[in-house]
Amino acid sequence: MADDPRLELLQGTLDMLILKALQREPLHGFGIVSHLDKLSAAAVRVEQGSLYPALYRLEEQGWVKSEWGVSETNRKAKFYSLTAAGRKRFAVETEQWRRMSRAINLILQST
Amino acid sequence: MADDPRLELLQGTLDMLILKALQREPLHGFGIVSHLDKLSAAAVRVEQGSLYPALYRLEEQGWVKSEWGVSETNRKAKFYSLTAAGRKRFAVETEQWRRMSRAINLILQST
DNA sequence: GCGCTTACCTAGAACATCTAGGCAAGCATG
DNA sequence: CATGCTTGCCTAGATGTTCTAGGTAAGCGC
User: Which positions on chain D have an atom < 7 Å from some protein CB?
Assistant: First the structure.
């Protein structure tokens, strides 16, 4: 792992990105992955093995809720949507992200 | 941990920040911590329990080297400095950081 | 010599993410 | 109708980083 390409997500950002993806409309797991992939120009690639545990985490916390339905391609799929608490949580996480990334950039820009 | 203040570092950024701190001059462990604390206006707080394992990691990879010396306050201290490989590594990590944070901000800014 | 601070070090837990699979069902093709 | 591709969900286990929570030692001021 010394010299891996490091496409991995920064830890702690996955939850935030998922919440963001659900901000517009409910999506199923597969949809979340392709949504993020598209938006980030493939810079962010979420593995399913990371996604589903994250979704359960979010659901357990009450930030998203799920409902079985039928996908656009006529397969059964579990649709996740934001709860009110989830919207609040999203605001909190983005604020933390901004603060942390600002601090890091500050350090990087110092002489 | 659901509602902790989350002052924790984003995973993967610690190494980069340490390398950055050593860019100007060799520092001992204690010095690195206070340096980062000062530069980030206390937004980044590195615990010693995180720092030392990270330093050993960096040394093992050949990105920093260490030498025993005497601190400004006349105590013995181990001074860490960047190697040539460490400088290269720092460039790689900052590039990765920039790419990832750009991608995340892109996603956050989407409608 | 006592307490404070600087300074180093470690073991263990917690946690997120990735790897690497497996399962099932729709759909198209022959 | 069988085969294969794709969509879609799910899990176990490994890996790696960071944090918690300690301990040790030595200089300095009083």
Answer: 7-13, 15-22, 26-28
Contact B99 A6 (CB under 8 A): no
Measuring from the CA of residue B9 to each C1', which nucleotide is nearest? D18
CATH number of A14-109: 1.10.10.10
Q: What percent of chain B shows pLDDT beyond 90?
A: 58
Q: Class of B13-109 per CATH?
A: mainly alpha
The pLDDT of residue A8 is 64
Got the DSSP string for chain B?
-TT----PPPTTHHHHHHHHHHHHS-EEHHHHHHHHHHHTTTS----HHHHHHHHHHHHHTTSEEEEEEE-TTS-EEEEEEE-HHHHHHHHHHHHHHHHHHHHHHHHHH--
All residues of chain A having their beta carbon less than 8 Å from the beta carbon of residue B33 are none
Sorted by where each begins, the domain ranges of chain A are: 14-109
- pLDDT at residue number B54: 93
